[in-house]
Amino acid sequence: MAKYLVTGGAGFIGTNLVKKLLEDNHVVTVIDNYASGRLPDRVLAGAEYIEADIRDFNAVKQACQGVDGIFHLAALPRVLFSVEHPLATHDVNINGTFNVLLAARDTGVKRVVFSTSSAAYGDQAVYPLKEDGIIKKPVSPYGFHKLVGEEYCRLFSELYKLETVSLCYFNIYGPHFDPKGAYALVIGRFLKLRQEGKPLTVRGDGEMFRDYTHVFDAVTANILAMTKNTVGHGEVINIGYGEPHSVNEIVKLIGGDFVFVDPLPGEMKFTHADNSKARELLGWQPTIDLAEGIARLKQEWHLD
User: Fold this and answer.
1) In 10 A of CB 3, how many CB atoms?
2) Number of helices and strands (H, E) in the chain?
3) What pLDDT is attached to residue 36?
4) Distance between CA 254 and CA 186 in Å, rounded?
5) In this structure, are residues 167 and 115 in contact, taking their beta carbons and an 8 Å threshold?
6) Do 160 and 103 contact (CB within 8 A), yes or no?
7) Kindly report the CA angle at 159 between 158 and 164, in degrees rounded to 5?
């Protein structure tokens, strides 16, 4: 049994992670400012919840006391939101991440697992994307923020001997997502529209490809990254299924009517993860493909 701090633990991925940690009998503290809303299904019995902002260094440092490891998921996510709100997202995603790393160093935390994003890669000429030997060229503030976070993790490992691992997520989806709002993930947004009997709104021509990864597989990767002795030196590790799918394919899997609307700024055209590093260093492999994942969500939403 270990004691873990989960920043952003009342968010989508964080809730799934906290649930698994509690099932494994760990002591879990969550720090979250509920920027994405205070959803009832995201507050779990058995965990301690601290309402605070990761930009508040003293609050973060206090939450780190006696903690064995930190899962750092807190962020103001989404590409478009960062384009429209560059100052606020910079402050949370870069300064907040620095606070978490500094507080971890100062309180003797052993390891930090940082949640980064495939948005840090930007548009590349060669796929699938490998973590090493590539020049990352983010096309949004959010992607740049995550790239800075990766580099801060590497520096803290090299300079201060704080163990860090950066997990680079490729389009995570699954239970506990929030389907509401302009910045909802495409699968969640489509399920909500289908439930309401409205046409699915497809950005551009629908031929934007993403490597969709189920949140249960992302949670497994987090736990492996926290516990494996093969990592902890500032590594960046892709967590992606390894099979890109277009938005048009998702429309077919979810079903219903659809319409095409204007594309959004700052969006990448294609992502495809090379997950061989995760397999090698973590012993991780994805277990839920897109068709199965969407089928599970449709059943949960009573759409079949």
Assistant:
1) 13
2) 11, 13
3) 83
4) 11
5) yes
6) no
7) 50
Q: How confident is the model at residue 291 (pLDDT cuts 50, 70, 90)?
A: very high
Give CA–CA dist 208/202, Å, rounded: 10
Question: What global pTM score does this model have?
Answer: 0.96
Three-class DSSP category at 214: strand
In the chain, the amino acid numbered 96 is G
Q: What is the tens place of the pLDDT at every residue in 2-20?
A: 999 999 999 999 999 999 9
Active-site residues, by number, are 142
Task: Considering only CA atoms, give the Rg of the chain.
Answer: 18
Whether the bond into 128 is cis, omega within 30 of 0: yes
Across the strands, what pairs with 51?
A: 32
* Token pair recorded at residue 79: 């590409």
Residue 171 · residue 212 · CB < 8 Å: yes
The residues, any chain, with a CB within 8 Å of residue 129's CB and separated by 6 or more, are: 118, 121, 238, 271, 272, 273, 274
Helix-helix angle 96-107:141-160, to 10 degrees:
20
For each of the domains in the chain, give its residue range(s) and CATH number, in order of start.
3-173+213-241+272-287 (3.40.50.720), 186-209+244-270+291-300 (3.90.25.10)
Strands (E), 182-279: 200-203, 209-210, 213-214, 233-239, 245-246, 258-261
Task: Name the pLDDT band for 264 (thresholds 50, 70, 90).
Answer: confident
